[in-house]
Specification:
This protein has one domain: Sufe protein. Chain: A, CATH 3.90.1010. 42% of the residues lie in helices and 19% in strands. It is built from four helices and five strands, in the order αβαββββαα.
Length: 154
């Protein structure tokens, strides 16, 4: 008999089954790549409690307006941004919601959200760079920010 010939079909069957099962597990573990979508929720109205208490336009006596953007569903969770506008300039940006289901999300957001905030305050628009390692959060942040800016009339 030839030395390279395989005489152990059971071993090959077990090996093939294990490889197939491993491949199937890896395929099922993959999450599909989907673009973030804006969630149509009643709570995602464009203004916060401070706006509705001041009447039309949402301006207070000091000319400050606080507007909450739409909630954006990302691959890792919802992102929502609240902005404060004074005299047509963005003076503050706060992430109302961000992915925080696990320690890794919290770690990413601990460095990404301050960077995004500083970018917004510098750019005074939603035309900001994506934070490396926080692509989905950055995209959701940008979309929610844009909806808040639209609602504020900027």
């Amino acid at each position: 008999m030839h030395p390279l010939r395989k005489n152990r079909p059971l071993r090959r069957i077990v090996l093939a089954s294990a490889v197939t099962a491993s491949g199937l597990v890896m395929l099922l573990a993959l999450k599909p790549h989907t673009a973030p979508e804006i969630a149509a929720a009643p709570s995602s109205s464009s203004s916060s409690g401070a706006d509705s208490a001041t009447g039309s336009g949402g301006s207070t006596a000091t000319g400050t307006k606080t507007v909450t953007g739409d909630t954006v569903q990302t691959r890792w969770g919802p992102v929502q941004v609240k902005i404060t506008v004074k005299s047509g300039k963005i003076t503050d940006v706060t992430a109302v919601q961000s992915p925080s289901d696990n320690p890794r999300d919290q770690e990413i957001n601990s460095y990404a959200l301050p960077q995004l905030k500083s970018e917004v305050l510098a750019a005074q628009s939603a035309k900001i760079d994506t934070v490396s390692g926080a692509t989905y959060t950055s995209d959701g942040y940008r979309q929610s920010l844009q909806s808040a800016l639209d609602s504020a009339g900027l």
